[in-house]
Amino acid sequence: MATSFWAGKAAKYSISVLVFLSLAVSGASAAEPRQARDELKAFPEAPAGQQRHVIFLAKRSDEDARRVGVIVGRTELVDCNRHTFGSQLEKRTVDGWGYDYYVVTGVGVVASTRMACPDNTKKKTFVRSSDEPLLRYNSRLPLVVFAPVDVEIRYRIWRAGRERTTD
Question: Which SUPFAM superfamilies match (predicted)?
């Protein structure tokens, strides 16, 4: 009899803890999108045929030693050759705010090395643009990139090594 009494109390307590934790987690996740929306108010919406990509960078103590490598690409059906295409990443400024954002322009057709493939099979793969700029790392503002709908934006964080002297 005593076992069922304590089992009931433990179940009631654990349910209360679960409800509290779920409310706390949902409140934290609800605050994050609202803050993100507030930070993006200054930036324009994506025009027709374009998509807005937003990268939020983590705050770091050594931001001057870091860069963001922006990779523009798209998924294509390709053979065994090396493939690439041309594009540019234009820097623009939000009027009245002074915030920078980037627009992918001049997206060209896919070029390849055109060597003979032994099996003539094709596979879907991510084809990168020939231009992969390194941008300033700034965690205080989101990195906003506008690109055509069929273009994907990926990124890498680069960190500088220690400074060295010349011989």
Answer: Ecotin, trypsin inhibitor (SSF49772)
